[in-house]
Amino acid sequence: MYHIVICDDDTLFIDHMKCLLLRAGLPSETCKFYSYLSASEFEADFPNFYTIDLLILDIQLPDVNGTVFAKSFREKFPSSTLVFCSGKQSPTPESFESEPYRYLLKTWSDEHMVEKLASIVAHIQTEKTEPFIHAGWYSTHIKLPASEIMYIARGRGCSKIYVSKTSPYYAYNDKIICKSSLSDLHALLHDFYFAYAHNSYLVNLQHVTYLNTTELTLSDNSMLTISRSRQKEFQSMFFRSMNSPHEEAVRIILPCCLVALQNTSYFRTSLMPF
After folding, report:
1. What are the strands, taking DSSP E only, across 158-218?
2. Measured in whole angstroms, how far is the alpha carbon of residue 228 from the centre of its chain?
3. 193-247 pLDDT, tens digit each
4. Beta bridge partners of 48
5. Candidate CATH numbers 2.40.110.10, 3.40.50.720, 3.40.50.2300, 1.10.1760.20; the one for domain 2-128
6. Which of 20, 55, 186, 262 has its CA 20 to 30 A from that of 122?
């Protein structure tokens, strides 16, 4: 699922930009648009996003200059693709401090805009491609899709990888290792719903089936402890991961879950595994 944010004070432009993005090749069945008329409105929603694939940001917003707001956005979403779009203002040295991918002008024709947007769509599609982890055991080497990984634990000079029951490598769960450090793997996998439940392991949130304040259960019924220092962050990431790729299902189930959380320390979701 692609999460596309357009922040502009012109609602007609927002609607038109959505159409142009679809014309440029963005798949309508796997994209979700979010529209904001001001930077403050968008910033207030930051906690509700796990990841943002593309932000199209107006330079001349009613409450703040877009180049200034872009710095706050970049701090929160360092790997997101940022594109400035302006009606008349030319790029300034400050506008490049937030590392925008492109700078668009609203005065361009639709044909020219679609041409430029096509390259942006191609870029985010490349960025969104599921990563593979180079791992193995003994003399066997494999390319492991991130979606098959349930969690990754810190080992001695390596990282130990535990895969789901549906993985063809499940029988080797006690043997699969990766030479990359846990912090390097977190940098690679963060945008694909991996989060620290403990300083010693990363968990694939899409394989969490049961959660309370101190423990979680994975799709193969194995259990992991959530450290006290990671509880708040992990639970926040978990709910945000639910809200991002499965919003329609969550809209129905989440209110029930919140009621359950008020009445018990346990939380079970029928959304997982995906």
Report:
1. 159-163, 177-178, 194-198, 201-204, 208-212, 215-218
2. 24
3. 899 999 999 999 999 999 998 999 999 999 999 999 999 999 988 988 775 533 3
4. none
5. 3.40.50.2300
6. 186
